[in-house]
Design goal:
Radius of gyration: 24 Å
Structural class: alpha/beta
Distance between the termini: 48 Å
Order of helices and strands: EEHEHEHEEHEEHEEEHHEHHH
Shape: globular
Length: 357
């Protein structure tokens, strides 16, 4: 039976790790995933990881999910020797969860993977080859994050986060003024091989386990979001490099969490403010950060509000189209009736209120 830890309280920081194994030609890869109320996509993500060639160990840090889903995860862990299920008992945040998973892992390299991301065959092996080429130095490698339709997702590769680049992105100035270059790079030409970039996404980030722990892991002051930007900066400040690997594509559904989108976006906004407060400590810089609090929250909340309005309008449109198709079907059926009733009279009959849309 695969090991399963439980009852990881708020005062326990280091979990016991699995025994080391012998050296191999390629580094051992541990995939670490943190889940809290992920939704039905979690099982698909877990299954893809367990089936992916090149994955030597899978550590799932469960902050909290419905009881029936937890039972399914326990059953899967009991059936797989390389599946370690860590149950923390409460939502400790993404950064803290990743640190717990990395401490519990036994691989030479760790792939931090979102719980709603699908690991296709060949991706883990590709990342392991890239890790072997980079050696034992400090580095971080980000995969190419794609939407289910195959398009590259925003945030997978980014420029440096500064107050200026943040304001350009929040206000969308790069869309209208060519002189303002945004920090998002997904619309740039896709390279043929691994290339250095300032920032990659924590949705699919590979790092050497020892180096990650030596740096202190993710900054746990970030509850959700921006911890990936922070650690990329930390890697570069330690003399390491951050890389984007275009040959490793990972489907990320996004938006599957059952938590409120305003909860998620609020922590994202707080993450940006903490980042600027941490790395821009000058008096004028602090004043700038304070002045940005309103625009940051306004831009992020405004974006999620517009998304919700758009989704509601799409739902209304779909329902209207479904109702129109139903009326046409009723009209067609009435015209086919052999009792001689007129199609006009039949088609004007009211549709049952109990009929589903």
């Amino acid at each position: 039976m695969a090991p399963r830890d439980s009852g990881v309280g708020s005062n326990e920081r280091v979990l016991p790790r699995s025994p080391e194994t012998g050296a191999t030609d390629q580094p051992r890869l541990s995939v670490v995933t943190v889940s809290w109320q992920t939704g039905p996509r979690l099982i698909e993500a877990v299954a893809s990881i367990l089936a992916a060639p090149g994955v030597d160990e899978f550590v799932l840090v469960n902050h909290g999910n419905p009881p029936e889903l937890i039972q399914s995860l326990r059953a899967m862990a009991a059936d797989k020797d390389n599946f370690v299920l860590v149950e923390t008992g409460s939502n400790l945040g993404f950064a803290r969860g990743c640190n717990i998973g990395a401490q519990r892992a036994s691989g030479d390299v760790v792939l931090f993977l979102n719980p709603d991301a699908v690991l296709a065959k060949g991706v883990a092996s590709r990342l392991k080859r890239s890790a072997g080429e980079l050696g034992d130095s400090i580095w971080a490698v980000g995969a190419r994050i794609i939407n289910p339709d195959g398009s590259e997702q925003r945030g997978g590769r980014r420029g440096e986060l500064t107050p200026r680049s943040a304001m350009i992105a929040f206000l969308g100035l790069d869309r209208f003024i060519p002189a303002f270059k945004g920090m998002h790079l997904e619309k740039e030409e896709l390279p043929d091989e691994i290339v250095p970039v300032p920032v990659v996404s924590g949705a699919a980030m590979l790092m050497p386990r020892r180096g990650f722990l030596q740096m202190g892991g993710f900054d746990e002051r970030y509850f959700l979001h921006v911890e990936d930007i922070d650690i990329c900066r930390k890697v570069r400040e330690c003399g390491g490099t951050v890389w984007f690997e275009p040959r490793a594509s990972i489907v990320h559904y996004g938006g599957t969490s059952q938590s409120s989108p305003f909860f998620v976006e609020t922590h994202k906004a707080l993450g940006f403010i903490k980042y600027f407060w941490k790395y821009y400590p000058g008096a004028l810089e602090r004043l700038t950060t304070m002045a940005m609090i309103g625009p940051i929250f306004g831009a992020i909340w405004g974006r999620i509000t517009m998304i919700q309005i758009r989704d509601q309008l799409r739902l209304v449109t779909r329902r209207r189209k479904a109702f129109a198709r139903l009326r046409r079907l009723e009209t067609h059926r009435a015209r086919q009736q052999p009792d001689g009733r007129s199609s006009k009279a039949t088609s004007s009959a009211p549709v049952s209120e109990n009929r589903p849309l």
